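S.,

Sequence below, as promised.
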Amino acid sequence: MSGISLTFGGDPVFSDLDLVVQPGDRVALVGRNGSGKSTLMKVMAGLVEPDAGSIVVPPGNSVGYMEQDPKMEGFATLGDFAASGLDEGELYKVERAGEGLKFDPARPVSTASGGERRRAALAKLMAEAPELMLLDEPTNHLDIEAISWLESELAATRAAFVLISHDRAFLRALTRATLWVDRGQVRRQDKGFEDFEAWRDKVWEDEDMQRHKLNRLIKSESRWAVEGISARRKRNMGRVRALQDLKVERAGQIKRQGAAAMDLEAGPKSGRKVIEAEGLAKVFGDKEILRNFSLTVQRGERVAFVGPNGVGKTTLLKMLLGEVAPDEGQVKLGTKLEIALFDQTRDQLDGEASLWENLTADPLMGISGKADQVMVRGQPKHVVGYLKEFLFDERQVRAPVRSLSGGEKARLLLAKLMARSSNVLVLDEPTNDLDVETLDLLQELLDGYDGTVLLVSHDRDFLDRVATTTVAMEGQGRATVYAGGWSDYLAQRAPSDADDKPRQGREKPKPDAPTAGQPAKEGLSFKERHRLDALPGEIERLEKEIAKLEELMMDPDLFTREPVKFKKATEALVERQHKLAAAEEEWLVLEEKAAG
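The prediction came back faster than expected:
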């Protein structure tokens, strides 16, 4: 790519961009939501024509592109689409990719979901095996088994690929170079995603230092210019013009977009026991979703539900929340629960309505969506101001939601979610389409959230960062509870299951048996053993939160500058210190009991 320039209406997306992708390159394409990553990829694929510049693909090389919303008009089934353009002898590649990615070739296009369409498009690209693969969020709508299959295929390929993904573990495992799209510039570093954040922070640090020096120089020269008028009556006009040039340079600097001003506020404390499920069973037709499953969720736990697509994670979640009745067993919900839901299908958003209307409307309360203000955790805020906190500009607030990118829809849904207080947060695939910085911020918010979190995700890195308990749904009605996140789950499984995916058909431990992979702890019930396993992670989390709060309160001016923040931080510190003491005491009691 040479001299590529592209403008959509206002500011240029790219200007005079030069970029080379070499044979065999394994490139992470990263940047904030809305920075132009997908647009750049479409330019690479020849689907978007730049305003200026040229793109050269050497003869004999082909470029394949997997887009987020594949067009399938004219094809009866997903298999027909995936096999189009392939020779008869290559059709087995579609079948192989279909098995790895879990899509049904016989599924009619007219009834296929967005996720099924994307899997078919990905299978088509993998079967075509071009010299350069352009992959835009390929892991969205894939379960962990399919992600592992795709990761293995890409690791083994000789083709070059450019990869957009929010999945840190996927990017770290596969990439050897990084393209960073930032404010219309594309920077390249010949290191994989593992080194991206350190590189980004260094670039920003250098920028801030340069901006600081420029501001100091302008201030100094401005003082000279003012004093020179009265002291000499004649000024060095060259120096004055240089001052004007410095001001033009500062004005031309593109301001770095800050992080979304997201904030989660827990509502009134729920009871200590949030959910108690005993002996749950559920069957749909001839498919057994769950058999003899029990789980107790305590206040403050972060429970993740993992397993293949279609295994019943969302169904189990709905049973635990009382929205779906089990065939057997019972669920008791705790007291004073205020539940907030982030759903993977974005059903809470009306695609034809504007961002403004989506944020202010409440059909259940008969509110039309025409108000100027939105209630944010009990306080009124102007709609435009609140949307700006989530990085939307004024031009977008009246636009229909269907015009937003996937990441922007996720941000809007988070804005709706965070406008209300809650003490139980239900996150069904929250990481899809979010950029790395927003994921970091979401994780920090969950770390500091006083309520309980129920999480469905296929993002292994996010699971490790957030979950304190993992429920692995393994098919045929089996579900097993493990302490910790994804890596802890892998470590705790029996040795025969130590591949990268849950094995179908493994027997669930009896309620009075130790968790698979854990030494027996005599004298403890199953629940006590599970609690003993979970306590070290809880203690570590509380210690980190206490350290953060203590660091905040070391600021000697905090009390006078922000008395409300100081008061909240003090209360939070005392509360967490009490929680830590109680958790350590509970651990000692259980450890002594386990030792007999």
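Residues 229-235, 252-256, 363-367, 496-521 have pLDDT under 50 and may be disordered.

Coffee later?
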